[in-house]
Amino acid sequence: MEFLILGATETIPSAIGSSLVQLVTFLVLLGALSYFVWKPLKKVMDEREQLIHSEIDEAEQRRMDAVKLKEENEAVLRETQTEISAMMDNAKNQAKKEQEAIIHDANTRANQMMETAKADIEREKEKAIRDINDQVGEISVLIAEKMIAKEINQDDQKDLVERYLQEAGGK
Amino acid sequence: MEHGNPIWTIDVLGLPIIFNLSTVLMIVISSLIVFLIAFFMTRNLAVRPTGKSQVLMEVLMNFVKGIISGNMAWKQGGRFHFLALTLILYIFVSNMVGLPFAFVAPDADQTLWWKSPTADPAVTLTLASVMIVMTHYYGIKMRGTKAYIKSYVEPVWFMAPFKFIEEFTYNLTLGLRLYGNIYAGEILLALLVMVMTSGAIGFIGGFIPMMIWQGFSIYIGAIQAFIFVMLSMVYLSHKVNEDH
Question: B2 in a domain, yes or no?
Fold first, then answer.
């Protein structure tokens, strides 16, 4: 058990050789593991980290884009709606105006036609009255002529008047 | 109980350089196991891992990262990541390697060939020394010589001797804690093996304690690997951090 005691004569020299072997082996192991194992592994892990970072960034970017797009869309929609309602108002006003114009027109024309018709009727009436008057005059003249021409007797005259009156009434 | 050690000596300029061949063998075997496990677990690496092995290695990586970033800023500590990973894996595997069986040569000395390399103080003290020397190296490199020397006379000048001695005790405690735990574990395992091979009653009586102790040794091995790396990082942070 003497190698348990540090400083025992055999221990120190015995340590040196094993020690050197341990040192060299450990350094070789460190180098080999670093090159073949840790470095590739770390690279993969770093790559993953990078990937996650970039994915998160991208997602954030996309979210912001989406928000912006949404706002834009909403603005466009609002604008369109305003435009549409303006157009509707315009159209309504236009239609109303046209309606009024048409009604006004129709009224005017109707009135005109009424006036014309009235005037026509008046004219025809006057014409008819005039005609009747003329005819009455003629007939009167005729009667008078007949009465003058046939100054026979009272009876005859009476007959004549009756006859011509009948004639005039038959007309 | 008492096993011999296969010693091989060469003279360099009259100085005997002694190798404990069993330790050397186990160092190489442990390193190979560590390398092969880590190597084959990280073959099909993908950003989206498909197998369990890559996930497991990434968990280990993040675990060690947690140990380091618990002690210092990752900007400073990132460079020790691979070192701490290699260290924790190597110590853990070294602690485990002696548990399932031991191999004792059938010679007069009962030479012990198969054991945990960390059951040899030369190994643990070497690892501890590497870490402690490294703390000094990075302490000077990252904070400058002036700040490094100044750290010895802080907070008061007469603390300097204690601080100086402390550096050696760090080394000793770091190395010997690991060695003591693993060596004691192996001695107890060897004792239990002796009990179990002594006869039928011994086998029955020793079976359950053997299982319990092996399970506990696994726990100790894992905990000691963690503690070793943890303390190394604490010592490093003492030297590397601006204020502590």
Answer: no
Question: Residue ranges of the domains in chain A?
Answer: 7-170
- A77 to chain B, closest Cα gap in Å: 44
Contact B5 A14 (CB under 8 A): yes
Residue of chain A nearest B121, judged by CA positions = A15
Query: How many angstroms away from the CA of A56 is the closest CA of chain B?
Result: 16
Are A34 and B86 within 8 A, CB to CB?
A: yes
Number of domains in chain B: 1
Counting as low any pLDDT under 50, the low residues of chain B are 244
Check CB contact under 8 Å for B123 and A23: no
B30 neighbors B117 (Cβ within 8 angstroms): yes
The C-alpha atoms of residue B105 and residue A95 are separated, in whole angstroms, by 117
Question: For position B152, what pLDDT does the model report?
Answer: 84
Q: Residue B156 carries which side chain, given as an amino acid letter?
A: V
CB B8 within 8 A of CB B18: yes
| Residues B148, B139 contacting (CB under 8 angstroms) | yes
Low-confidence stretches of chain A (pLDDT < 70) are 1-15, 150-154, 157, 170-171
Q: B91 is in which domain, residue-wise? A: 7-240
Cα of first residue to Cα of last residue in chain B, in angstroms, is: 47
**Residue of B58, B82, B123 with shortest CB distance to A22:** B123
pTM: 0.73
Rounded to two decimals, the ipTM of the complex is 0.86
| B1 is a domain residue | no
For the stretch B60-98, pLDDT in tens is 999 999 999 998 888 888 899 999 999 999 999 999 998
